[in-house]
Amino acid sequence: MQLRYAFRLYPDTGQRAALAQAFGCSRVVFNDAVRAREDARTAGAAFPTAAELSTRLITQAKQTTARSWLGEVSAVVLQQSLRDAESAYRNFFASLQGTRKGPRIGPPRFKSRKDTRQSVRFTANARWKITDSGRLNLPRIGAVKVKWSRTLPTTPTSVTVVKDAAGRFFASFVIDTDPAADAARMPGTDQTIGIDLGLRHFAVLSDGTKIDSPRFLRRAEKKLKKTQRELSRKQKGSRNRNKARLKVARAHAQVTDARHEFHHQLSTRLISENQGIAVEDLAVVGLARTRLAKSVHDAGWASFVNMLRYKAQRYGRTLVKIGRFEPTSQTCSACGVKDGPKPLNIREWTCAACGAVHDRDVNAAKNVKTAAGLAVSACGAPVRPELVLAQREETSQSRCQAAAARGIAPW
After folding, report:
1. Is 339 a catalytic residue?
2. Active-site residue, selected from the candidate residues 32, 196, 298, 339
3. For the whole model, what pTM was predicted?
């Protein structure tokens, strides 16, 4: 399993200039590759192969006056830029044919020096290394200071230097992990949990635990409005506008980093404490089109579930997603009787069949766990609520008692 470990970089003035040159050369090679493909498509000719593009756009281009400055950066960076263009076209064609999962994607577009994200990738062929003093030595750039927040479990296979919209630099290392060793590091447990994600509470667990929603975006709205207002008053193209733009980007980056930290801590705790986890497959895209769009994006459910997915795969845990149309809020978790839809303002309700009083969210979390097949009975067998057909003489109030009289468990 491959994972990424990201660390903050602090390049000096000369190294920033060298990185900017590497970003620019990588961007030019990528755009030249896209242009060559588009020219071939317009002319009705066959697409040039990766080897032909490498010879024409890198080897021969370095010998020309217009592209001689390509020789001032590492050749590995340029080759990786061509690989990125090839990968973008493969994903585009796979999306057209329907063999790629996810939404339909468009063809590769030209990159701009004004893009909010700039990156270059160094593989093992570039002979980069981590020095004894803890610096990252990159070819044609030098030894860059790194803020190590944790140790790397194994030797990285490649490193990608990224500059984000806030002007920060990061080194993203690709690590090959051993699933058996990772699973051995996790404590053994036989507990299972169901999770009901929401807005009032970020997550409600089937054991009754409620985790409040931090609402990072809502709490930072005042600061974001102030920085955005200052940006709107600056003259376009001026240095002051660029400074104001960085303030806005840094304010948004603080919100994003805080949300990711919250997701990481919560997902790691749930993975370490439970062997099986059940969540509902929410329609985030659809919910983001409603009046709750800002709150839905602020919660970041998709990011949290994705963390649960890859951490469960890494540490040998089980993550089960149930269908989004499962009536978890309408079904009694005690007897399994479906009581019908309820308005959102009803937070507690009483089952008409068995008389059990339910907290809406806790009941939904229990149903999520049961629908995923993670609930177990006293004898250790998995439990899934099934509706018991009532006889003609049975009323809805006595359905559970009649089922028990026939020796059938109503849940």
Report:
1. no
2. 196
3. 0.84
